[in-house]
Design brief:
Elements (H helix, E strand, L loop, with lengths): L1 H92 L1 H12 L10 E4 L2 E4 L12 H5 L13 E8 L2 E6 L3 E6 L1 E2 L28 E4 L3 E3 L13 E4 L5 E3 L12 E3 L4 E4 L12 E3 L6 E2 L12 E4 L5 E2 L2 E2 L2 E2 L9 E4 L6 E4 L2 E4 L4 E4 L8 E3 L6 E2 L12 E4 L5 E2 L12 E5 L19 E5 L2
Parallel strand pairs: 5-7, 6-8, 7-9, 9-11, 10-12, 12-14, 13-15, 14-16, 15-19, 22-24, 23-25, 24-26, 25-27, 27-28
Antiparallel strand pairs: 1-2, 3-4, 4-5, 17-18, 20-21, 21-22
Helix pairs in contact: 1-2
Length: 446
């Protein structure tokens, strides 16, 4: 019985061992299958990752190319817009001939001041040579903006302060100075008497070399004497129509680069020496409304070719001790007077009184070597033919009864004055009509 039990137990153990071996064999095969599957998945994953990397690289390159193209397009568009704006502004400010030189000059105006600073009310503002609005100032557009705080800006403010009790100035880094507020500007005079500030105390005195344009906005009622004198780079000026009455003496005295100025239609008086020494002015049209033109207003405007006088002018201070209204205007070719003017007239570019009995001024650079005084002329005014560089001979008829002081100032020995029926030595004006004149003279009294 015991032996039989042992055999049964051995048989059972054999069966268990066989099952275990079979199970282990199947387990190994399953593990191999799973391992193979995992390996295939990993290989597929690596391949997918490689494809993704390639696609990402291609997308990145395309994106970079598009960005570069967009940048190029944007830069080209901005450049074209800037050039168009500058071209438009140029035509509105100084005209075709002088615009290029203005643009070139303006671009370097502030280069020397880039590293300098100025103190205003305890703060410092660095002056930059960046000019985001272009090199040429559209002064008409600026003057029409109405306020210095709107969209028409000319760079950051480098200096500001008061130039009247209720009038302020702002100087921008582009060289544009805006005068705004309500009321009158201060006067700046060498005398410093009373409430007049001295010329040296002008608040923009540290920026004489940098100011290229001045816009006096609507609301300002008067311009101070000497306010903008001796600004060597000033080129354009806009004066709003709110400015009325008297334009102070020497307002723009000795501004050699001034080429363009828009004068208020409500100015009544252009005081003495206002434009003296403004060598850049080539043509001036006085607005209708001006009634009085003071002494030496255009003295030494050496490039002035033409001046137009409107109907409203009823008094001109033609000459004083130191010369004539147009002394030194060596390029002047023509003076034109409105036919509606009740006091003055012009004929062939020459200035007369209304009935042309008084010859007031003969332009220095008027063409022609020979001239005969018209028979209706009774008087040749003082300084009338001063520095007439093109004339070689002038003939004066016996109808002339008076010749003023220094009428032929600057004439040389190569020029000739011929009197018909007149002996000048017998006239009351014999002592001074030839002052500062070296011309030969002859007369026929028969």
């Amino acid at each position: 019985m015991k032996r039989k039990f042992v055999k049964i137990l051995a048989l059972l153990m054999t069966v268990c061992v066989s099952g275990a071996v079979s199970a282990c064999t199947k387990g190994d095969e399953s593990q191999k299958t799973v391992g193979n599957a995992e390996s295939e998945v990993m290989e597929s994953s690596v391949g997918i990752q490689s494809d993704i990397s390639a696609v990402s690289s291609e997308v990145s390159e395309n994106s970079s190319g598009k960005t570069d193209n967009a940048s190029d397009v944007s830069e080209a568009t901005q450049t074209e817009t800037f050039n168009n704006n500058v071209q438009s502004s140029t035509q509105n400010v100084v005209g075709q001939d002088s615009a290029a030189s203005v643009s070139k000059q303006t671009s370097t105006d502030f280069s020397s001041k880039t590293n300098n600073t100025v103190s205003q009310s305890g703060s410092e503002s660095e002056i930059s040579d960046d000019n985001e609005n272009g090199d040429v100032v559209d002064i008409e557009r600026l003057g029409g903006c109405g306020t210095s705080d709107d969209t028409f800006q000319y760079g950051k403010i480098v200096s500001e302060g008061m130039c009247g009790d209720t009038v302020k100035y702002q100087l921008h880094e582009s060289g544009v100075m805006i005068i705004s507020g309500n009321g009158a500007m201060y006067h700046y005079d060498e005398s410093g008497e009373g409430n007049i500030e001295s010329e040296a105390e002008r608040p923009w005195s540290d920026f004489y070399d940098d100011i290229i344009a001045v816009a006096i906005e609507d609301g300002v009622t008067s311009i101070g004497s000497y306010a903008f004198s001796s600004l060597p780079q000033l080129r354009e000026v806009y004066i709003a129509d709110s400015v009325s009455g008297n334009m102070g003496i020497r307002t723009f005295y000795n501004c050699p680069e001034l080429k363009s100025i828009r004068i208020s239609e409500n100015i009544k008086v252009i005081s003495g020496n206002v434009f003296e020494g403004c060598a850049g002015l080539e043509e001036i049209s006085i607005p209708d409304g001006v009634e009085f033109i003071g002494y030496y207003v255009f003295k030494d405007c050496v490039n002035l070719r033409k001046i137009t006088i409107p109907e409203s002018v009823n008094e001109i201070s033609l000459y004083g001790q130191d010369g004539h209204l147009f002394s030194g205007c060596s390029s002047l070719e023509e003076i034109e007077v409105s036919e509606k003017n009740a006091v003055y007239a012009s004929d062939d570019g020459i200035l007369y009184n209304k009935d042309k009995t008084e010859l007031l001024f003969y332009p220095q650079n008027k063409s022609g070597a020979v001239y005969e005084i018209q028979p209706e002329v009774k008087e040749i005014c003082g300084w009338a033919f001063c520095d007439s560089c093109n004339l070689e001979t002038i003939t004066i008829p016996e109808t002339v009864v008076n010749i003023g002081y220094a009428a032929f100032h600057g004439w040389t020995s190569e020029q000739m004055i011929i009197f018909e029926g007149i002996d000048p030595s017998l006239k009351d004006w014999a002592d001074d009509w030839s002052a500062f004149c070296d011309a030969d003279s002859m007369w026929d009294t028969e």
